[in-house]
């Protein structure tokens, strides 16, 4: 059986799969633990279940209802954001929050409480989830909403798929008058420049996000380009819906694993330098289709293959404004000293809108995301250092992008962890969850249910 | 096809076909055996833009229901101009070899129930001198092989019946389209090892609809199966009978 990978392709684990077909079906009885798995766009091991079973939700891909008058959509948990956009965008609706790829499922968006370029205005995806059904391994089904089973609602949003299977969900969409975004690109010369322009942009722009040249040093440390934009006003309605802009991940493709030598300090430096200077140092405005604005990387199928067989590690942290300047400086310096360049680094400000999810990652401050080709120990050491710097700054690291976070750091980042644990389904677990909770090692509960417990993974190494 | 009866609408290929038809704004009448599953497919089609969707829970092995079912579809959609016959079972070859009852069950669902339904539908379409009958058969019907000849026989018999029906209905402007998919990657085959020959239900559905639109006679989907089956049919029986297929 072809094993499922996470998007970073690290770690690689052995696990079973079980394809779900109908939302009214019962969960399968398996030795070992279960974990829902959508499109596998989580980078590390939060979507993996070494020694257990992945419940593949791609078969739960049906719509249930859509009201074009109110913009409320109800669908099964395996429906992708791409599928939703194709249905609703031509009818004048858009996702209230969208991550940088549309190839994630609704269930995954809830389980990771994803955020987007509008966090400072809209908060997380979970805020727009009106209700969903949670199926537990004991066969019970609960409709969860802010005013119905609110604890289950809070535990499941951002709950990493551990509280049970989300079978369907209802989401409030946001109206648009056309599929275009008025986008402006503003260069900034260093980290202070970013903080100034980002804060200044929050008031007038729904969407903001910045690309950082992570190899620039000294006075230029943290220089980059800030993208800000709003959906175009109705005077642009007359433009034809440019279908050619819709990437469905089948056009350009990375056909194979790229050999390691393609990605080195020199090529990444050249790319970053060219990218920055393309802009001539001046702000530039243009009208663009939403697809390349929100999903630039979706146009290249399997872009994760540029990192080769060994995969890559992504690191995303958020640090509060009080410590942001110094902490980000240290983090950027540490990563540029690592000799392991990050191809794509992204800076973004998070607003103070709270999420209903107890384990939600976004919180007020500045978030930084970086990719590192996996070169073994050296890379792991780098990421662990960045983790430490984040914790010292009073920040947090994003589980959906993590493969290395320690149990102590997890507990520090997610103070509601104890409360959350009581809602974890006894039959559900993930490689991530066992890693950050080494005491609750797998399958003890399968034994309690009176079933034969399968042997635990050969060693903890098998999990990592 | 604007007003379409889909028989066995909860199968993977039928679901994918229903989605494409719904996106085109067709009116649909869907049947399936499981009420909850049929309801899921019905709501999905309605949400995706079908002009109208009605459904009926029915076991097509009960031949006595066929006349009324067709009548209900005609009434609900105010006429019919298309049929997608998608119900069928794979059966278990080993079980079928042991038991006539198991063999009969496969023949009954895949061949006899299809013939019973097509008898009613053909007369209606012949009388209205319009319409497209699309029937999902299989490459397995092209040649009997020890690994699944009971299923293959049910589809082979169906193919011959459809040839005759096509011959009869051509002058009445009714198209009879035989669709022969190869391996299809459905959620239910997710546990099987996959090779390059597995096609997605979506791909099969697109091939099916394009064949229906151009009123083809017999199509293999994906097209590569035309070549594969040509080779398989060409092998002399003296050689073929010794092969492990």
Automatic annotation (TrEMBL), chain A:
Which domain of life does the UniProt lineage start with?
Bacteria
Q: Where is the FAD-binding PCMH-type domain?
A: 1-176
According to the record, the signal peptide region is none
User: By its UniProt entry, which SUPFAM superfamilies does this protein fall under?
Assistant: FAD-binding/transporter-associated domain-like (SSF56176)
Q: Which GO terms describe its molecular function?
A: D-arabinono-1,4-lactone oxidase activity; FAD binding
Q: InterPro entries in the record, alphabetically? A: FAD-bd_PCMH, FAD-bd_PCMH-like_sf, FAD-bd_PCMH_sub2, FAD_lactone_oxidase-like, Oxid_FAD_bind_N
One Pfam family this chain carries?
FAD_binding_4
Q: What is this protein called?
A: FAD-linked oxidase
Q: State the taxonomy lineage.
A: Bacteria, Pseudomonadati, Myxococcota, Myxococcia, Myxococcales
UniProtKB/TrEMBL annotation, chain B:
Q: Does the keyword Oxidoreductase apply?
A: yes
**What Pfam families does the database record attribute to this sequence?**
adh_short
Q: Which domain of life is it from?
A: Bacteria
Question: What InterPro entries does the record tag this protein with?
Answer: KR_dom (IPR057326), NAD(P)-bd_dom_sf (IPR036291), Sc_DH/Rdtase_CS (IPR020904), SDR_fam (IPR002347)
Annotated Gene3D superfamilies: NAD(P)-binding Rossmann-like Domain
Keyword terms of this UniProt record: Oxidoreductase
Q: Carries keyword Oxidoreductase?
A: yes
Identify the SMART domains for this entry: PKS_KR
Residue limits of the Ketoreductase domain?
Answer: 2-187
Entry GO CC? membrane
Q: Which PROSITE patterns match?
A: ADH_SHORT (PS00061)
Molecular function (Gene Ontology), one example: oxidoreductase activity
Q: Which family, according to the similarity comment? A: Belongs to the short-chain dehydrogenases/reductases (SDR) family.
The molecule here is called Short-chain dehydrogenase
Please name the taxonomic classification of the source.
Bacteria, Pseudomonadati, Myxococcota, Myxococcia, Myxococcales
């Amino acid at each position: 059986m072809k094993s499922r990978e996470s998007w970073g392709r690290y770690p690689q684990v052995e696990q079973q799969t079980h394809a779900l077909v109908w939302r009214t079906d019962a969960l399968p009885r398996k030795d070992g633990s279960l974990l829902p798995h959508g499109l596998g766009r989580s980078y590390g091991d939060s979507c993996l279940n070494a020694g257990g079973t992945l419940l593949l939700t791609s078969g739960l891909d049906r719509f249930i209802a859509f009201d074009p008058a109110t913009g409320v959509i109800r669908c099964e948990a395996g429906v992708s954001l791409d599928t939703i956009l194709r249905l609703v965008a031509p009818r004048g609706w858009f996702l209230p929050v969208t991550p940088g790829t549309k190839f994630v499922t609704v269930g995954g968006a809830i389980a990771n409480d994803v955020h987007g370029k509008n966090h400072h205005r809209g908060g997380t995806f979970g805020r727009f989830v009106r209700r969903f059904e949670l199926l537990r391994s004991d066969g019970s089904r609960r409709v969860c909403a802010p005013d119905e089973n609110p604890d289950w609602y809070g535990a499941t949003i951002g709950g990493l798929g551990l509280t049970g299977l989300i079978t369907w969900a209802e989401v409030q969409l946001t109206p648009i008058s056309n599929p275009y975004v008025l986008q402006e690109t503003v260069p900034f010369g260093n980290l202070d420049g970013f903080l100034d322009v980002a804060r200044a942009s929050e008031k007038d722009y729904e969407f903001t996000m910045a690309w950082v040249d992570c190899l620039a040093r000294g006075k230029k440390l943290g220089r980059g380009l800030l993208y800000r934009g709003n959906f175009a006003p109705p005077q642009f309605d007359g433009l034809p819906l440019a279908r050619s802009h819709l990437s469905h991940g089948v056009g350009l493709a990375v056909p194979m694993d790229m050999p390691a030598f393609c990605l080195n300090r020199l090529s990444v430096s050249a790319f970053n330098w060219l990218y920055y200077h393309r802009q001539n140092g001046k702000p530039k405005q243009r009208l663009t289709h939403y697809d390349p604005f929100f999903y630039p990387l979706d146009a290249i199928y399997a872009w994760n293959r540029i990192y080769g067989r060994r995969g890559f590690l992504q690191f995303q942290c958020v640090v509060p404004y009080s410590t942001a300047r110094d902490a980000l400086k240290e983090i950027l310096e540490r990563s540029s000293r690592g000799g392991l360049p990050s191809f794509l680094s992204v800076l973004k400000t998070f607003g103070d809108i709270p999420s209903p999810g107890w384990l939600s990652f976004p919180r007020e401050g500045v978030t930084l995301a970086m990719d590192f080709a996996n070169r073994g120990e050296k890379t792991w050491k780098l990421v662990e250092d960045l983790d430490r710097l984040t914790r010292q700054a009073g920040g947090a690291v994003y589980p959906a992008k993590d493969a290395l976070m320690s149990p102590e750091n997890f507990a520090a980042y997610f103070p509601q962890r104890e409360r959350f644990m009581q809602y974890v389904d006894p039959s559900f677990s993930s490689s991530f969850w066992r890693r950050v909770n080494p005491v609750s090692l797998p399958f003890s509960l399968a034994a309690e249910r009176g079933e034969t417990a399968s042997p635990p993974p050969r060693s903890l190494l098998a999990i990592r | 096809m604007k007003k379409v009866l889909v028989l066995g609408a909860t199968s993977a290929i039928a679901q994918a076909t229903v989605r494409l038809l719904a996106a085109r704004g067709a009116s649909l009448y869907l049947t399936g055996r499981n009420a909850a599953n049929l309801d899921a497919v019905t709501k999905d089609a309605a949400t995706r833009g079908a002009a109208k969707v009605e459904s009926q829970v029915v076991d097509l092995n009960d031949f006595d229901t066929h006349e009324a079912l067709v009548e209900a579809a005609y009434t609900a959609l105010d006429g019919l101009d298309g049929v997608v016959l998608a119900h069928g079972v794979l059966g278990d070859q080993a079980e079928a070899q042991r038991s006539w009852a198991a063999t009969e069950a496969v023949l009954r669902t895949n061949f006899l129930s299809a013939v019973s339904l097509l008898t009613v539908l053909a007369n209606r379409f012949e009388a209205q001198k319009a319409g497209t009958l699309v029937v999902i058969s299989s490459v397995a019907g092209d040649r009997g092989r020890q690994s699944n000849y009971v299923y293959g026989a049910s589809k082979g018999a169906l193919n011959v019946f459809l040839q005759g029906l096509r011959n009869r209905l051509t002058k009445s402007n009714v198209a009879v389209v035989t669709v022969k998919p190869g391996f299809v990657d459905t959620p239910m085959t997710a546990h099987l090892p996959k090779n390059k020959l597995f096609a997605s239900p979506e791909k099969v559905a697109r091939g099916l609809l394009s064949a229906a639109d151009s009123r083809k006679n017999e199509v293999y989907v994906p097209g590569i199966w035309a070549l594969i089956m040509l080779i398989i049919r060409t092998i002399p029986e003296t050689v073929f009978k010794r092969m492990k297929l």
